[in-house]
Amino acid sequence: MPLPETIPVKYTEEEAEYVSIRPVVRQSFRAAELVDMILAVTGKDRPRIQQILRSGTVVFHSYRYWWDAFEADAAALDEVLAQYPDSLPDNDPSRTLRAERCSEAILESSGSPARHSLRLRRDQAGKRKFLRARSFWDCLMSLAQNAAPTYREYSYALHGDLYSMSLAPLEIAQLARDASQYAPRNLRAELVILPVIVQITFVCPRASRATLA
User: How many angstroms separate the Cα of 92 from the Cα of each of 18, 86, 148, 165, 205?
Assistant: First the structure.
């Protein structure tokens, strides 16, 4: 049995421990669009996605979405999920980070979730200061090349492969010096969190998946 063609969905901002007085928005989602959103929360886990569709609600990016619950046919759901990539196998050479594929670096402190984090896009951190031959992004990529970050997984929320590396105190100190020397002023203001950063995760987008029907 195919998934419903369209699904009426309501959503509003999630307000923990309080009855929300935010306005409720109504929108029709294609089944594949709803699955796409749930996938970012669950990963490629068909039983869990089925359970969420059956429950009729999910929280995504601080919004709560809900719809009339339904039982998703396993075969139809597998057909949608087949359009999404899997994490790279152990023998895939792409498990080695290539700087040219990297679009974003996420700086994180300790804690789960991290108490402090900063997402740096390549176009943002790649801006060069006047008369500087390097950018702060160049410094990040040089660090990654020397440290060889470990492949983690494919992220359905970030639409890319994740590579992570822990930072030693000397590396943090070097990044702080690089920030003062190469980062534009507005970015330096955000990089004041560098002393508490313990990990960098690099995001490398995969080739675009097939258009969802």
Answer: 48, 12, 15, 19, 16
